[in-house]
Design goal:
- It is a single chain.
- Helices cover 62% and strands 0% of the residues.
- It has 77 residues and is mostly helical.
- The protein has two domains: 45 residues, no CATH class; 28 residues, no CATH class.
- It starts with a helix and ends with a helix.
Length: 77
Amino acid sequence: MNDTQSTLSQEEIAQIEEHKYFLSEKAGYDVGWEHAEQEWRENFCKPSSEATDPIENATQTKGLGRFFKRLLSREAV
């Protein structure tokens, strides 16, 4: 187990292993742990500084999410 794996929870490791499986199946060869982990972090990993406010969490998406975040953050007039 490398240093990165030791900082991950068992659930995260299982998710990365599953992600590695699907990436490898799609590619037709073993893509390797490092590639699968990087891909998983970019696409599925929750940011460590994730907000606890449900409205903040719901608006942390691309595109219209920023618009709604600004809209909801303004004081009601």
